[in-house]
Every structure is written in structure tokens, then in C-alpha cells.
Write a structure and sequence with these properties.
two-stranded antiparallel ribbon, 155 residues, 7 strands, globular, 29% helix, 28% strand, alpha+beta, 60s Ribosomal Protein L30, Chain: A, single chain
Amino acid sequence: MSETITERLAAMGIDLPEAAPPAASYAPYMRAGDMLYISGQLPIVDGKVAFIGHLGRQVDVETGKRAAAACAINILSQISAALDGDLERIVTLIKIQGFVASAPDFTKHHLVVNGASELLAEVLGERGQHARAAVGMAALPLNAAVEIDAVVEIR
């Protein structure tokens, strides 16, 4: 892939929203040397949580994947804010952790978090390959269906 991250986002029809402020007492991101830690991002679209409820109850897997993709877009927005808009400073996406609000018998967390993994891989190209975790939770803030955080190596 020779195009820039910004060009790939445009080709995918994605306009990064303004990075959301934290919903509680924490920083939206922290930098330590060449590592950038992005706090958990909810599936906020147009200023509100767009995907609420539990997977295996009110939310199906395909909708959960869309929620995870929304979280990934918000991760990119936070990275952009941290890097003054220069996404080309991303060296590699090290890891994401996906938290899925789910019914006790729901077992497809990995498929839900694929929504974020696939979007990030498409946007970042080779820099988007990452380790990850996908876990079920009894509940998430603001009744969000998914929350995802990230660790990124930057230059």
C-alpha cells in the first residue's frame, strides 16, 4: 500500500470525528517514550453512544462488529489528536483490547472485536497487524455494547 493513512480513510469514506473528551477522571491518551496508550473508546457516533445493550440479548454479532469498528474510528481520532493530526507517525499498532458487554452464554466475542481489527488493518496496512484480547463483560460504561483500547508505537 503506497497511499497514506489519510488517503485510505478518505477512500473508505471515513472522516475522523473530533477526539472525544474523557467521560470520567482519566486522560484520553498517554505517551511514554515512543509508545502511545489510548484509553478505552466507546462506539460514540455524532456525540452519543450509538450501540447499546448486550451481545446475545439486544445486539447481534454483525451490529457488535459495527460497534467495534466505531470504537476503532475513535481510537484513530485519539491517535490523531495525540500526534497533531499526523497519522503517518504511527509505526505499528501493538495491541488492542476489546471489551464486549454480553449475555452470560454469549461466546462470539472474538467475532465482534474483528470489526475493529479488520478496520484498523485496512486503514493502517502492514502497520495495523496487532495482538489483541477479546473478553466479555457484565456491563460497560453508558450501556455501550463494546469498548476498545489500544497501544501504538509512534515516531
